[in-house]
Amino acid sequence: MGKYNALSIFWHALCRHKYWQRVWRDPQPKLGYDAIIVGGGGHGLATAYYLAKNHGITNVAVLEKGYIGGGNAGRNTTIVRSNYLLSDNARFYEHGMNLWRTMSQDLNFNVMFSPRGVLNIAHTNAQYDVFARRANAMCLNGINAELLSREEVLDREPIIDGSATTRFPVWGGILQPLAGNARHDAVVWAYARGADQLGVDIIQNCLVTDFIHHGERIVGVKTTRGDIYAHKIGLAVAGNTSCLTSKLGVRLPIESHVLQAFVTEPYKPLINGVVTFGAGHFYVSQSDKGGVVFGGDIDGYNTYAQRGNLPVFEDVIGGGLALMPCLSRLKLLRNWGGVMDMSMDGSPIIDIGPVDGIYLNTGWCYGGFKATPASGWCFAYTIANDQAHKLNQAYTLNRFASGYTIDEKGAGPYPKVH
Q1: Residue 240: Cβ within 10 Å count
Q2: Which one, of 180, 163, 175, lies nearest residue 138 by Cα?
């Protein structure tokens, strides 16, 4: 707590935090930087932090159109995992898991990482065989995985409907015991403070409206707070990537969709870890405050709006009640939506952009929050060295032209791009 003891914290609370020091500075933008990161969410802030920490590039600005934590970083279900089938994804996300495990110590900020386990339920014998293949692949990639029997699943999560009359019988499951959840807003606050302490300027309420060209190279951005120049400009704006790249005359193989999430009123401990429904798209966990947090499919239409519609609302809750009927007794507190950039193969793009001076971090589909540290680590390396790190070599843009796509079904459903 530094200089804050229990008495001073109580005094500050009585003063309505009037005298709290800022967690990070609120600087005016300078005319020029070595690098600009557009997007002040988890990926953008992590990139700036690792640029400064790992590569010594501290003359960096993070430009956020709103406030820190106001985008997808505050609109997700906080799940952290690396239970992927394909080796490229497994290695990348497991590197992220290793960073999650030490993040609070590294940033000196409690991000409330809770390795409570992620359990995927199998509802048919064939699906159980598929899960066995995934578990073996995870183990071959050095990731801890356990194949559970029906009895072990029901013992771990007794509120799952394991009756003989249930529509979707439980055959077993696959457990990643060291995966779990983290506090989403604490993550962005931690990276923001960490980057700020290393000299990075975090500039809020700064909307990028266009790019500044010098011949065929991009040398800066036009913003609502003036023109800002930089040698390198990284885009980490999730579902709004296509809006910015359209100003460059670039069309990427992504679509923007809204993904809804939901939370109930607080309740006593009910769910031990993260649980996913194998017969539909439903995933659920319980927050530290007791709220049951869950989500499912995207709404299935292109949009930049942070709001969803009732058909998916009904579909997600239907899947949840089929798996855990007792959830019907809980009152829904609220729902929200985040705008996701869905790539055509379900895997991200971390690469040097098709226009000189631009770098891309996009296409995260359902993997955005969990990828925060690994994404920032690899994107910082790519920007600093003008080449991909070995962990994101498979995530380059040209894979869509060459046909070397990463068709990871375990990432969740995703649309085809037309």
Answers
A1: 20
A2: 175
Place of tokens 């609120």: 26
Asked if residue 410 has pLDDT above 70, the reply is: no
Q: CA-to-CA distance for 330 and 406, rounded, in angstroms? A: 39
Q: Choose the weakest-confidence range: 3-12, 45-54, 274-283.
A: 3-12
Cβ(358)–Cβ(218) below 8 Å: yes
**Residue among 70, 93, 65 nearest 350 (CA):** 93
List the one residue out of 313, 265, 257, 309 whose CA is nearest residue 287. 265
> What mean pLDDT comes out for the span 52-58?
98
CA dihedral 77, 26, 39, 258 (to 10 degrees): 40
In single-letter form, the type of residue at position 146 comes to: E
Residues near 105 by beta carbon (within 8 Å), at least 6 away in sequence? none
pTM of the model: 0.93
* Residue showing tokens 């996913």: 276
CA-based nearest residue to 384, from 29, 31, 34:
34
**Segment 134-161 mean pLDDT:** 97
Nearest CA-CA partner of 259 in 292, 291, 293, 307: 307
Sign of CA dihedral 265, 270, 275, 277: negative
* pLDDT at residue number 233: 98
Q: How confident is the model at residue 413 (pLDDT cuts 50, 70, 90)?
A: very low
Question: What percentage of the chain carries pLDDT values higher than 90?
Answer: 86
Dihedral of CA 186/190/193/196: which sign? negative
What is the torsion angle, in degrees rounded to the nearest 10, for the CA atoms of residue 23, residue 24, residue 27 and residue 33?
180
d(CA 394, CA 374): 14
> Which stretches of 24-117 are DSSP H helices?
42-55, 87-107
Sign, Cα dihedral of 70, 76, 82, 86: negative
Q: Are 246 and 324 in contact (CB under 8 A)?
A: no
Give the span between the Cα atoms of 297 and 312, in whole angstroms: 7
All domains in the chain, ordered by first residue: 80-181+255-343 (3.30.9.10)
Q: Where are the beta strands (DSSP E) in 290-403?
A: 291-302, 332-343, 349-352, 358-362
